[in-house]
Amino acid sequence: MQTPQKIPLQELSANTASISRVARTIRKTSLQMVHRAKLGHPGGDMSAADILATLYFSVLRLNPAVPSDPMRDRFVMSKGHCSGAFYATLAEAGFFPRERLMDYMKPLSALNGHPDRNKLPGVEANTGPLGHGLPISVGMAKAAKISGAPWRVFVLTGDGELQEGSNWEAAMSASQFRLDNLTVIVDRNGLQQGDTTEDTVSLEPLADRWRSFGWSVQEIDGHNVAEITNVLRSVPFESGRPNCVIARTHKGRGVSFMTDRVEWHHRVPTDAELAAAIAELERGDHG
Fold first, then answer.
1. Residue 118, Cα to own-chain centre: how many angstroms?
2. DSSP strand E in 72-173: where?
3. With a threshold of 0.90, does the pTM exceed it?
4. The domain 16-283: what is its CATH number?
5. Please, are residues 214 and 244 in contact by the beta-carbon 8 Å criterion?
6. Are 89 and 52 in contact (CB under 8 A)?
């Protein structure tokens, strides 16, 4: 089977302006989904939007018309609680109709609060309990190496999620197995439920910690689409070493009164707040 092509979306090119527009759409859509459901994690949805848009519209080799193509790249949304942004991205990419987003978090909906690979095309792994996505991705990358397959594995983790020890067991394994086909992207927004990451369990110096586990590391602005594109298109950074991208981001990015505010980890906007947020996002005042 041929390697699938990058996703087309109304002649969307890989230029940064187009991807940034998609990221704003993801932010608006996911915020509307959270407001409608009265549940969700909008702050993390917003911080991850530029990364998700860049992955799906510039980096990943896959085809939404054939979601189980064995030659596709794999993406694992380890920070599964940010399912709003993930589902919005999959819908924009064409994995399922946008109308299905209206079912977000409804009883028995395929669009659970946490992604379920058995219910929705484009979801590679069930995630939500933190610390599971990277271990699963290590297994995927190892499988590709064993079979000699060319596909790659990308996984997006939260930063607070890295306080789970399972991630570091997986990191040691990835280095041991020389999985240079594996890339972890850390959404480093500095906030988790209730507090900053550094006042909960400090992660810094985060880059040096990953390097000490045998990974090749690069740090980027996680809202700069050009930087995200360039770094993710350049993997592997070093032959025989797994790749870590620490993406410095802002929780609630795109809306002034949400940005860097810990309460928006899982707060639901009021009608007035939603209207104000959508207005800011449509103007593009804050990314």
1. 19
2. 74-77, 153-158
3. yes
4. 3.40.50.970
5. no
6. yes
